[in-house]
Design brief:
Helix content is 47%, strand content 12%. The protein has 352 residues and is α/β, with parallel strands linked by helices. Helix 5 packs across helix 8, helix 5 (150-163) packs across helix 9 (238-267) and helix 11 (283-296) crosses helix 12 (303-314).
């Protein structure tokens, strides 16, 4: 970890330029919430939580929130994974800066459960998001703000594309979503990362640099440092174009979910799913119904597993159903598809 020395300036002397882009994005985000009928206003009187790693992006967002709501209870939530030697330094940096800025900082220790074949990066992300949601809810916050920016969104889209993801995966990160009783907002998704860092540097505001962001062992890091420079030469406006693609995929994914929910209502009954009703659906809609049903049961599935399940349902009725989705057991029963989830399968935290 590289941590610059603290500049020692007082909060009152912080330059507005340090968070100019983040502040403008936060105001745009606040106005855009009018399009989300269910979401509460961001200007409420209640406390506000900001996920604060100590890096440039979350530093810019935290300072922008402090400037926009100077008298509001503001919590900086720092997740301590303990996955690298610098984790204690990161936490100390976050606490020192928040003390200097008059912001309540909460350091949240997190254990990252790992099973054979699990991605450390993915499991750390899920554990981090779940912990942030719990803490924000416990503090009485309606909103939890995350500092993902336009570069992060583009990287997420490219990662999903390389995984062969469908519309839901290609939608990348939603700007607004409700998770575990908390509204999660990403106000900086239209902000370039370099602009946020440049403003902090120009104002002399300190931030940490996580070595994992440049470690080629992580696919996201290689996309950032090897693939995106090539894309930059081909398409200088890649942040806007890839962000627009993610937004269009999000619209398509929402439509698919609405259609799947309607189809699932027609197919579902107390024992499980009506095989006759499933058979009447086109293959794509049938796959979406199965995916939605499995999610309701707390089962996460991939495209290959759904395809396999569909093929087996099209086979002869006397053949057993071997879906290979965790410990879940599927079987046909007098015109129904039934499922026993199994004692050990519980839904993992949903992505933010």
């Amino acid at each position: 970890m590289r941590v610059r020395s603290l500049p020692g300036h007082q909060v009152g002397a912080l330059s507005a330029a340090a968070s100019r882009s983040a502040g403008a994005a936060l105001r745009r985000f606040r106005r855009a919430l009018a399009r989300h009928a269910d979401a509460p206003p961001l200007d409420g009187a209640g406390p506000l939580a900001v996920a604060f790693s100590g890096g440039a992006d979350s530093t810019a967002l935290l300072l922008a929130a402090r400037r926009l709501w100077p008298g509001r209870a503001l919590y900086a939530l720092h997740v301590h994974h303990g996955l690298q030697a610098a984790a204690d330094d990161f936490a100390g940096h976050a606490q020192a800066h928040c003390a200097q800025w008059g912001i309540d900082c909460r350091v949240l220790p997190v254990r990252v459960p790992l099973a054979a074949g699990d991605s450390v990066e993915e499991q750390a992300r899920l554990a981090r998001h779940a912990r942030l949601q719990r803490e924000a809810r416990a503090l009485g916050c309606e909103w939890l703000l995350l500092a993902h920016h336009a570069d992060d969104q583009a990287e997420s889209l490219l990662l999903a594309l390389l995984r062969g993801a469908g519309p839901a995966g290609l939608a990348a990160m939603p700007p607004v979503v409700r998770r575990a009783g908390v509204w999660v907002g990403r106000p900086l998704l239209d902000c370039p990362g370099p602009a946020l860092r440049a403003e902090l540097d120009a104002a002399g505001v300190d931030y940490v640099r996580d070595p994992m962001n440049t470690d080629p062992a992580w696919r996201r890091s290689r996309i950032r440092h090897e693939l995106l420079p090539v894309i930059e030469r081909l398409e200088p406006g890649w942040r806007q174009t890839l962000g627009r693609s993610a937004a269009l995929c999000a619209q398509g994914s929402q439509q698919l979910r609405r259609q799947a929910a309607e189809d699932l209502r027609r197919c579902r009954g107390e024992p499980g799913l009506r095989l006759g009703a499933l058979a009447e659906l086109a293959p794509g809609r049938r796959a979406e119904v199965l995916r939605a049903w499995l999610l309701e049961l707390g089962l996460r599935s991939n495209a290959a597993q759904i395809d396999n399940l569909c093929r087996q349902l099209e086979a002869a009725a006397h053949r057993p159903v071997q879906a290979g989705i965790g410990a879940a057991r599927f079987w046909r029963d007098a015109g129904w598809l039934r499922c026993d989830v199994g004692p050990r399968l519980q839904a993992r935290p949903r992505s933010l």
